[in-house]
């Protein structure tokens, strides 16, 4: 695609691709949430996206996310935190995030918990368990075998609302089998918590495969935003 293509055009191309993939999977495109991952791009791009009707934005680093959320506070946006999260940043992320997609260990669940004196008006944080799909521990994501235990922790933690699972397809392998494994974990989690039925999967290069395996939340960066150096 032409690097100069206006943002609106790239957004429209991706949304058409999402709609096509949904139809191919026999699913209603309206049940999918397209998150635009704006990492490496300035808050001005977030504003342009908001003007095009985008409401769900994704970021993977706390400092950058916090700054952009503050700069666009006047817009009615939902920030999705999708990157690896250090426990000592968890409380700060809660202040601006609508959802965290990368919950992969018990210490992080504890760090994200609401303080007992937080008051009643704090929205529960939409919580996705990140599941490792690569079989190589240490790259982010819980071992699939630990998913139920982690889910129980989230369910027992004040201020967190378990909504589903998240995964990143491993580099250099077919994405669809990885997304199929994520779907199996999702099925197990749903037998424990029927409402936790969301699946956050699919990026610029593999969202069609993710949709075929049941993804409900797509995290799309470069196909919409362009590469940062393309924007000068
Ligand atoms: C950057 C990022 C994305 C978006 O990736 P693209 O390939 O640019 O679409 C999605 N998920 C996570 C966790 C990311 O860090």
Automatic annotation (TrEMBL):
UniProt keywords, alphabetically: Pyridoxal phosphate
UniProt-listed Pfam families: Ala_racemase_N
Coiled coil: none
PROSITE patterns named in the record: UPF0001
Modified residues (N6-(pyridoxal phosphate)lysine): 39
Residues covered by the Alanine racemase N-terminal domain: 43-227
Keyword Lipid biosynthesis: no
CDD domains, per database record: PLPDE_III_YBL036c_like
UniProt family annotation: Belongs to the pyridoxal phosphate-binding protein YggS/PROSC family.
Protein role: Pyridoxal 5'-phosphate (PLP)-binding protein, which is involved in PLP homeostasis.
This protein's name: Pyridoxal phosphate homeostasis protein
Source organism of the structure: Homoserinibacter gongjuensis
